[in-house]
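Lab notebook: predicted structure, single chain.

Context: the supervisor wants predicted structures on file for every construct in the current expression panel, including those that have not yet been purified. This is the next one on the list. No modifications to the sequence; it matches the entry in the shared construct table.
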Amino acid sequence: MFGYRISAHKLRDNDEAQREAFDFLLSAYRMDGHVLGKELITLSVGDRLEAYVQVPATDAFDAGLANEWTAKSLERLQEVGLSAPEFTVIDGNEPVSACGCSDRTSLILFTTYVELLPPIKCGDCFHPVPLYRLPRMNNDEFCEVMTWQSNYQACDTMFMNSGTGERFGYRQMSQIDSALTHEGQAICRHFEDKTGAPTYYYLHRYYRRSNTLEAARLCPGCGGEWKLPRQWHDRFDFKCDVCRLISVFAP
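Prediction complete. Output recorded below exactly as produced.
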């Protein structure tokens, strides 16, 4: 991940409309996967508006990778008297780089309650894939992916907090018939249909009765064998190529 400052100069006085237009641009970038996280704060600094954001890769603001909503947002800036935005990289970056594979053989939908990175991972390198590099979903953006990630992280947070909603959160993440799983599998089917790359859904696993029973468990989708001879990406112990499901050995 990389830190960036987005700034636009005020060419005339129109404060309320300018802030609204700038906020809409940030939202458009977020819903298309260019900007990570939910907390997007606009600051008024002298004669300009600014926001500090994190992005998955340095091509996040390349014009050719933007969707129609971002293009409309950029036009709106000029209409309300703001300059075209300037993008300044902030020194330093997180030690997690975006996927650089030229031809991905598979994809994985995976996130955790503390993760800010895109939830689509490359099946070859397991690095995050910036969403804007993938085929968009409804309304020319990734609302379904953002919603699923937010819901998953909410369930994971309830489970990790071990209080209110713990059992509900765990069931949503671990059961193949949960609403959360259905949402995630629909996203996986979209990316697989559009890219041709098999796209796997992660089923969380924590509770077990014994090592023997855990090692012998079958795919909850088709009932087939899915225990791997060795871990995939040093993380996943189970993988079903029929149902496109992966999981881990319960600790």
